[in-house]
Amino acid sequence: MSLWSLFQAASKVGGEILGDGAVVPSSLSLDTRTIQPGACFVALRAERDGHEFALQAVEKGARALLVDHPLDSDCPQLVVPDTLVALQRWGQARLAAVRPKIVFGVTGSVGKTSTKELLAAAVGGWKTPGNRNNTLGMPEALATLPEGLGSAVLEMGMSTPGEIRRLTEIAPLDAGLITMVGSAHVEYFAEGLQGIAMAKGELVAGLDRGGIWAHPAADQWCRWIAEQPWARHAEALPVGEGEPFGWEDVESLGATGGAFRLRMPTGSIPIRLQLPGEHQIRNAALAAALAVRLGHDPERVARGLGTVTPGPGRGQLHGLHGGGFLLDETYNANPDSILACGRALMQVPGGEAVVVLGSMRELGSEAPKIHRETGAALKALGLSRLWAYGDFAGDYAEGFGLRAIAFPDFEALRDDAAGLSAIPPGARILVKGSRFWRAERAVDWLLAH
After folding, report:
1. Total number of domains constituting the chain
2. Given this model, what pLDDT does residue 271 score?
3. Taking the CB of residue 443, how many other CB atoms lie within 10 A of it?
4. Which of 93, 156, 302, 404 has a 20 to 30 Å separation from 264 between CA atoms?
5. Which residues in 265-389 belong to E strands, given as ranges?
6. Left if phi > 0, otherwise alpha if psi is -120 to 50, otherwise beta: which for 9?
């Protein structure tokens, strides 16, 4: 079975074909900014109506359109009542038709994407590209899932209750992994961390009966999930101290990564990573334990883990012209991930350890307090200076204390003499922030200057 034509897709999602239904799209795309020639453009109705961009997609090489009403174009069209529903059905049907031998789901408040990469490398599996981890991106990726796969690793994200449940309806899981339960998106959960644990636990609830899921043994909310009646159909695999699977003999290799031994019921095996930071060792141990528990050869698992390199904004370490290093962790931020990256920075050799932070989002009424606590915790780790910007920059700075400075926005951080230009040569610099604050701009400026 090759990729589907519009005729074949229509038989799965319904709708009417206008034009050549034998056209076979190479992929699905939701965004004209990134569309590739040969794709089927999906016109979604969101903050802006995707139908307004359909002709632009055709100009950029779209081979077909998925729309909710006929458009004035010669490009073949699949016309459906609801393009979102059709997108999700397309991905769901494709997965069912070419289902790999085992489908993994990965979620957690910190480290989802890195752990997805690690698990896919450990089992030699296909993986959802980039961060396509929501009810749009995941079915978009699944719609052109290859045939004959031994395994597929799907990243599953959420910001509100029910999102992971919907993802597991689209993609039923055989096995899963939760990296940790933390305070990301707490603004949307009246029950606080328990509500987040319930939402992450939707991955476990979505496992097929007899499925298995790995989690850090020390995470109290993961243990809470394992005790819930709705999780008892699946086997929990705690990984950590006092458990048959765990990690030990941890060694920081500074800018080049880290090393550890994976403890297993049958012995232990050395693993070397190209990802810096102890949090990545935990993520790798979780992935390795789950892979070995499911029958994968430990030597092959270790080799696979060693091939994973940091992605953009997710732990890339840049050497700077004037000496020192810049740790680019700009993809997103929450309190747990900021502190994990702060610890990683302290393991990198070099000069003064400093941090540039954009504010965090979706923390609710506790946001000022959480920013102050995060600033104080960074100071306690040993970082010597902090530059912050955004709506809670003052709270970061208040928590950090002396040698912290706050700016209202990136432009002020960039242009003020006390801003980015005041970072000392030779420093080790962590840059991180919420997506909203686009902290990658600070990385670009620092690398250029």
Report:
1. 3
2. 98
3. 23
4. 156
5. 267-273, 316-319, 325-329, 353-358, 385-389
6. alpha
* Integer Cα distance of 182 and 288 in angstroms: 22
Strand partners, 45: 49
Residue 311 lies in a domain: no
Rounded to two decimals, the pTM is 0.86
Give the list of residues 6+ apart from residue 193 with CB closer than 8 angstroms, or none: 181, 182, 183, 186, 221
HSE (CB half, 13 Å, CA atoms) of 57?
32
Q: Tokens for 160?
A: 């509100």
Q: Tokens for 381, please give them.
A: 């780790």
Residue 339 lies in a domain: yes
**CATH code, domain with 433:** 3.90.190.20
Residue found under tokens 């089927």: 40
pLDDT value for 193: 84
φ/ψ of 416, rounded to 5, equals -70, 140
Phi-psi region of 264 (alpha: psi -120 to 50; beta: other; left: phi over 0): beta
Q: Which residues contact 150 (CB under 8 A, 6 or more apart)?
A: 100, 101, 102, 123, 124, 125
pLDDT along the chain (449 residues), means of 10: 91 96 96 95 93 96 97 97 98 98 95 95 96 93 96 93 96 97 67 87 96 97 97 98 97 88 97 92 97 98 97 88 90 90 90 97 90 97 97 97 97 97 95 94 95
Spatial distance between the Cα atoms of 16 and 6, rounded to a whole number of angstroms: 10
CA 214/CA 285 separation, integer angstroms = 10
- Residue 414 domain boundaries: 316-448
Structure tokens at 449: 């200057």
The backbone torsions φ and ψ at residue 446, rounded to the nearest 5 degrees and listed phi first, read -65, -40
Q: How far apart are CA 277 and CA 290, in angstroms?
A: 21
Q: For residue 91, is it within any domain?
A: no
Q: Do residues 73 and 138 both lie within one domain?
A: no
Token pair listed for 272: 């070397």
Q: Is the dihedral of CA 136, 139, 141, 143 positive or negative?
A: negative
What's the start-to-end Cα distance of the chain, in Å? Answer: 52
Q: Are residues 356 and 394 in the same domain?
A: yes
CATH code, domain with 242: 3.40.1190.10
Q: Which of 346, 398, 417 is nearest to 386 (CA)?
A: 398
| Same domain assignment for residues 296 and 323 | no
Last residue of a domain, one of 26, 57, 82: 82
DSSP 135: T
Say how far apart CA 88 and CA 95 lie, in whole Å.
11
Quote the CA–CA distance of 90 and 92 in Å, as a whole number. Answer: 6
Both tokens assigned to 300: 């092959």
